[in-house]
Amino acid sequence: MNAPRAPEAAALMIEREPFYRPLHGEVELFEAAWRNRVPVLLKGPTGCGKTRFMEHMAWRLKRPLVTVSCHDDLTAADLVGRYLVTANETVWVDGPMAHAVRIGALLYLDEIVEARKDTTVVIHPLADDRRTLFIEKRGEVLKAPPEFMLAISYNPGYQSVLKELKHSTRQRFVAIDFDYPTPEVEAGIVARESGVDAEIAARLVRLAHMTRNLKGNGLDEGASTRLLVHAGKLMAQGVAPRAACQGAIALALTDEREMLAAVNELVSAVF
Amino acid sequence: MSWSAPSSEPPHSAAQLEERFEELIGAVLSSRRSAAGIAQALADAPRALQDFALRWVAVTAKSSPELAYQFAALAPRAVAELGTAGAERWLLAAMDVYDREGLYRASAELKDLGAYAERARERGRGIAFEDAARVLGPFVSGLSGRRLRLEASDAAWTDTSTLYLPTHVSLFEAREDNFRVYKLAAAFLWAQARFGTFNLEPAAYPREARERARLAFLETLRLAARLERELPGLYRDYLALAQPAPGAEFVAAAARLAAPDALAADSLAELARLPASAEPPRWPFVGLIDPERALGVRAERIEREKAALQRALASLPSDEGGEFDRDTARLLEGGAFAPAPDVASLVESIVQDLGEIPQDYLRPASDAGYRADGSEPADAQPAEDGADDGARLYDEWDFRRQHYRRRWCALRERDVQPGDPTFAPRTLERYRAQLRALRRSFEALRGEDKRLRGEPYGDDIDLDALVRARAELAAGGELSERTFVRRARHERDMAVLFTVDMSGSTKGWINDCEREALVLLCEALEVLGDRYAIYGFSGITHKRCEVYRVKRFDEPYDARVRERIAGIQPLDYTRMGPAIRHLTGILAGVEARTRLLVTLSDGKPDDFSDGYRGEYGIEDTRQALIEAKRAGIHPFCITIDREAGEYLPRMYGAVNYTVVSDVARLPLKLAELYRRLTA
């Protein structure tokens, strides 16, 4: 039985350029932060391109990318690492955070507020000028190399008191605000990503704007660019536009019967 | 609520039925109206129908044996005409009338079966404004950035802030077609507001009703071309309903009005060219135009939004002396410069009215004379007058306006007067057997922070397990993978607030069951160790909403609390919204990972006056629950509702709820529900 190991740095490299359409200088800002070893906080609604942006930046900076999707059972041990048992010994296996520090990767903690509160213990020393990771179980102190960078994402749209980012955490980061792009740009993105023609893409974006008008007015979130791309991909495969939008957009947005009917009416108004 | 599928059991005989009727409604029977007659009529019916009739006779007899008798006599005919579900609604409607207006009106209602059936058919086919508006409200908000209200009216027209739609549409056989008429009517009114039907000088509009109707039709043609470009799907609906075809003059005008830059002025020009004889066809979705009212509302809005925009700009950094230039305006209009969402919709609304942002709008304003929220003036006396005696003021959602009534409800906290001290012990005695099982099932839930050994993965290595595993390996066995210690967090970091309906309608055994349920629940919760509080609510009118303290979060469960539970009694009405808002506030102040608000009520929200009864109350309650959810609280609603009203999915749609149809089972059911909810 071979000891489980963290993936090679090479496997985490992004070879082909991920498509990303810069909106207002976020690429330059991110690069400047990286050069100055300042961690970054990506803010914005779901599906507006935060993860894609990270992939793009990893490719651009030629650094491996370690992404962790945080969930409410994610502990500090999950991030740092733990001992595992093999045939004849116990082996230490780095968690994604320790691994990312060792190989000088970009570490992206997606939806950080979902993680358990004890993760702040390891995030804070890594996010300020100490840039260190203390591995308690091994008594090891990892000093982050200059190429290492921590980025976290946060969706302020959740209006839950439980999902607030603490100030002691957020004030360690340079924030980059993400929002949906202008209609023309967004249509371009949808067309490029899904393969539908410009006319269909423009209609999808029009539909998205209609649902975004309903945010806080029956819907918790409007349709994200990602949902539009999904709908577009279905259409590119020959699914009828209304069916594609109902499946990829309306049902994804709400479970409420009347709201669903309203969104479906919007869909059939546009298509 | 459902009655069982056609039963395979043999039908009751006339004699059996007669005996049951004697039992249920003996009080109103006499030699002239014996049970034999109605029993005979039902004896030939299938068993399912007999059971249906018996069940509802039993239910109705509790309110009025007389009404129950009349129902029994009419039941076979009613089921034949309306089906069982329809007959149920017919009876419930009559019982509603009985509650409000007494027996005389109720029995008239019941006997008028034919008229009811006719209305039911009409309703089934047609669609009422309320039903259409639930879908069309969000639909219209989605189409446009400006918040438009929907209201019922005699005809379809708009004043550019509110879309007025007819109260009922039943032009077609199919419900979908009728809905389509509603949808198109709303869409064209929206388009009038959106594409500048009312952006002309007041004097330009014709005065005569016929001319206005012709202008409305020409505008419909112009706007249809707009829809074709922007909302092709809707345009297809339009083509399907735009029958009969208009005359040649109108077709020619439509071709000219289809130009992308056609404006309301072009429709006016076409109106002037029309021969006097040209009569537009009557399309079901074409509304009226009322320039006077629309222009009034528009002018008022323009003023308000100008002030609001200037105020918003005042908070933006600007270069020289506070003036913004044309570039800013262009950026705002084009949406390239991203202002806060509320400013963005303001800009959108202004551009809709005026086509651009005028230069003088860009002068940031001082604070004077501006209503802070940019909303329309709040009307009518809010409940301010109660504010001095410790009352809290809460907003209330008015669905007709799609706005909150600000500080509308005055709510006070009061103590429940302690009741019979023997009530709780008696209850515990009565449920002694079930209580033991209840306690055990809650004990199983009670979790502690445990170190689980022998886990397949975990934070650390379980040395004992590892040694064992190695020994087994040495003995030729397989190496176990279960060699880790995991800290399982079973901590129930939970705070729950129970709120019970203390309205007059719970009088009698609903109230008894509520109190028993609370006693058992407290016993169970004490085992579990969750933090909990219990409040009751009732009130009359928005000026006197009351929340009654039974047990606060920081209070132990002791004899005083038990006496207060016993003292819960039916009081006034069910205005649920303010109570939910107040208790949401209390719960939000408690530090816990999960906060749960459990409401226990007996049906529709109801209040004595100011139209809370019915739709208004349902919508306000729904809104209050949505607010609670936004505050990070999980609301859960338990309804004791014999009628399983159709309003429940709407009212509780946003949150979880359950219906307890058998009140007698509530005491055990409540604890069980809580257990399932938090397991």
Top keywords for this entry?
heterodimer; A: 271 residues; alpha/beta; Rossmann fold; five-stranded parallel β-sheet; two-stranded antiparallel ribbon; 9 strands; B: 679 residues; eight-stranded mixed β-sheet; 24 helices; disordered N terminus
What does this molecule look like?
- The complex is a heterodimer of chains A (271) and B (679).
- Chain A is of the alpha/beta class and 271 residues long.
- Chain A has 2 domains: 10-177, Rossmann fold (3-Layer(aba) Sandwich), CATH 3.40.50; 183-270.
- Helices cover 42% and strands 15% of the residues of chain A.
- Chain A is built from 11 helices and 9 strands.
- Chain A has a 5-stranded parallel beta sheet with strand order 2-5-8-1-9, sandwiched between helices.
- The longest helix of chain A is centred in the C-terminal third of the chain and has 16 residues, at 198-213.
- Chain A is elongated, with a radius of gyration of 21 Å.
- The model of chain A has no long low-confidence stretch (mean pLDDT 88).
- Chain B starts with 13 loop residues before the first helix and ends with a helix.
- In chain B, the strands form 4 sheets. Chain B has an 8-stranded mixed beta sheet. A 3-stranded mixed beta sheet of chain B has the order 2-4-3. Chain B has a 3-stranded antiparallel beta sheet with strand order 8-10-9.
- Chain B is built from 24 helices and 16 strands.
- Chain B has helices spanning 14-25, 35-43, 47-63, 65-101, 103-111, 113-125, 129-143, 175-194, 209-230, 232-241, 248-257, 264-273, 291-314, 326-334, 341-354, 423-430, 432-445, 463-474, 509-528, 559-566, 576-588, 615-630, 648-652, 666-678; strands spanning 127-128, 149-153, 157-158, 162-166, 168-169, 392-398, 403-415, 450-455, 460-461, 484-488, 494-501, 531-540, 544-551, 594-601, 634-639, 656-659.
- By secondary structure, chain B is an alpha/beta fold.
- Chains A and B meet through strand 3, helix 8 and helix 11 of A and helix 7, helix 10, strand 9 and helix 18 of B.
